[in-house]
Amino acid sequence: MCGIVGAVAERNVQGILLEGLKRLEYRGYDSAGMTVRSPQGQLQRQRALGKVAALEERLAAEPLPGHSGIAHTRWATHGRPSEQNAHPHQSGERLAVVHNGIIENHEALRRELEGEGYVFTSETDTEVIAHLLERESRRVGDLLTAVQGVLAHLDGAYALGVIHADEPDVVIGARKGSPLVVGVGIDEAFLASDPLALLQVTDRFVYLQEGDAVRLSRGGVIKVVDADGYAVEREVQTFEHGDGAASKGDYRHFMLKEIHEQPAVIAAALEGRLGERSVLVESFGPDAEALFGQVKQIHIVACGTSYHAGMVARYWLERYTGVPVQVEVASEYRYRQVVVPEGTLFVTLSQSGETADTLAALRFARARGYLASLAICNVPGSSLVRESDLTLMTQAGPEIGVASTKAFTTQLTALMLLTLALGRVRGLDAGEQATLVEALRGLPGLVARVLELDPAIEALGTAFAEKHHALFLGRGAHFPIALEGALKLKEISYIHAEAYPAGELKHGPLALVDSEMPVISVAPNDELLDKLKSNLQEVRARGGELFVFADEQVGLAEEEGVHVLHLPHVHEALAPILYTVPLQLLSYHVAVLKGTDVDQPRNLAKSVTVE
Ligand code: AGP
């Protein structure tokens, strides 16, 4: 949802800002822009419609030399994608601002400012911030104080970067509801929406807290003030994942690289969390054991792919712990009159930890008497992590492709750890715990074997390239896997896809089935297999072409109109994790065949920090 970069350095900052934008392009890519203060004290701006490459071309023709600057890659909320609406936005010639988030009271502020003679040149909500800052900085004379003053008038979510021609080599940042980190260099300082943007210049970061504002100045001087205006020290943390995450390596797309990283990241998600025969409950924090003993209900809240992970977890948690579980999308949950029975654990799932609806749901839940909140998240230092009582990091490493892959399978791995930790505290049979722990140890190896099917899955993909619709079927914990498969196909290939629990087919969707509707199903060796086979017969009898990913032991054979790919046998509980992988690969290859932008599909952004 828009990416921000800022820099103050001895060297020219254009290259740092541009590289930062390229690394943030996953957050939005409909237009991009940059403003640098020239050594002569002028603000110079370049903006371009489209991807960062378009801005790069402009900068090659007309570079922006200088030691301080801000830059932005946009995902449109207010105002269509256009050069005029691209950031940075200026008030006059002396002040420029970049913004990620939404200003909810922008219409009233715009009317007020227009009444005072300010002329607006864009349709964005951001431009009100530029004019408010211009007015305030004239009044108070100092940019950091002006930013603090203006923040009090803004409703909504924001991360900001600001420069002023009259303050040489200074960049101001601020955040509330949208992420912003400070990169700590050697005599240099940087700002960005995500540490990834700055890994080429530093691996040390300060994660700003809600309401913080920061002043970066020459010599790497960083001054942070909190929401109440007091100067505060914030811890400098070292980024642990290395810079490899920011490059595609030998892979054609980030998505393919991230799919192939799954054996390694699932192993990382398990590392240090498995005892010999059970899960180490302390993985969830020192208070977890006492707390898990009091859990009587669980509410899981998340969005998109993370929501699908929550749906799978419901099957696991109810089966192995006997605790009733409710799963809901965050955008619905946060506006409902939720009934919270005593002893309910509130669980959020999020790759980014910054998804606006999930974060709002957590804040909404706080006042509703939950036993505690647990965040299962991939980004340390994210808002969700900071604001939850317990956390479990999924250890997937940075995920760049907009379509979530390794983040999902590590979420599932973490949710199985939660199931077994809760199960342990609540007396789950020791033998059953040991069997599942052993199965988890073997999971990375099985995922690696599924990845070897890649060429066969690529060949299957050719059958989809000309299709306009597809149906995904699954039963039990594999219904959410079917939903996830359909979401992947939709978002990167733009083929309309729907998912159903296979038993629901005859209640309506069967009417859609004909030779033009490919039907994809996952068929692990579980207690619902025979029922699933009957459902697949119903499809075949109507001329539907079937694509089945089946356990090697279930005896499903290829025949006319039925394509079968066999997966290695896996413990039934872990099958949802394994069966996700071929669906990811299928969507990937169909998208490549269709020639879509796999890593940055149209209209989407990686981190949805607006409502
Ligand atoms: C899935 O491929 C999407 N990237 C999207 O559904 C995503 O899972 C959703 O926006 C939630 O994001 P989060 O996990 O960062 O909260």
TrEMBL record:
Source taxon at top rank: Bacteria
Give the EC class as a word: transferase
Q: Provide the active-site residues from the annotation.
A: C2 (nucleophile), K606 (for fru-6p isomerization activity)
Q: Name one GO molecular function term.
A: glutamine-fructose-6-phosphate transaminase (isomerizing) activity
Q: Which PROSITE patterns match?
A: GATASE_TYPE_2, SIS
Region annotation (Disordered) maps to 66-92
Could you state one GO cellular component term attached to this entry?
A: cytosol
Reaction catalysed by this enzyme = D-fructose 6-phosphate + L-glutamine = D-glucosamine 6-phosphate + L-glutamate
Q: Domain (Glutamine amidotransferase type-2): give its ranges.
A: 2-219
Q: Where in the cell is it found?
A: Cytoplasm
- Gene3D superfamilies xrefs: Glucose-6-phosphate isomerase like protein, domain 1 (3.40.50.10490), Glutamine Phosphoribosylpyrophosphate, subunit 1, domain 1 (3.60.20.10)
Say where the protein is mainly found. Answer: cytoplasm
Q: Does the keyword Heme apply?
A: no
Documented EC number(s):
2.6.1.16
- Give an example GO biological process: protein N-linked glycosylation
HAMAP family assigned: GlmS
| Record note on quaternary structure | Homodimer.
Q: What is this protein called?
A: Glutamine--fructose-6-phosphate aminotransferase [isomerizing]
